[in-house]
Structure formats: structure tokens, C-alpha cells
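Sample intake sheet
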Amino acid sequence: MSKDVKITLTEDEAWVLFELTRRFSDSDKLSVEDPAEERALWNLCCIFEKALHQETDLDYTDFIKLCRNRLRDDT
């Protein structure tokens, strides 16, 4: 079972990332339309690097496959 991870964003980061993901949800196309979106994604990556710690002996590629499998909807 996955553990919760808590991250903190500024309100501006949250709004910019919300708009980016909303556009993706509506169009199924992921594209950066403004430098602020790129900055928000870089900031999010930095936040993840600080918050996430792989607690397994699995190779990173196998670990990501495992996480993806747990996250997927059942088909």
C-alpha cells in the first residue's frame, strides 16, 4: 500500500499547474504554453526530489513500473 506524501506549493504554482493539467485533461495534449508553466514544473520536480525516498531494493526502473501498476485503473 502506498503512503501519503504531503507537498506544499505556492498559490501561484498551484493555479499554474492546475491550468496546465486542466488543459491536458481537456485535450489529451501536454504542452507548455508559458514559461511560468515550465518554472512551476521545475519547482514541482524539486519538491518531489526532497519529499520522495525509494524504500526498496528494487532497481529504479522496476520500482517505477511497480508504482505505475499500483496506480493504474483496473481494466
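Comment: The chain has a mean pLDDT of 92. The chain has three helices and no strands.
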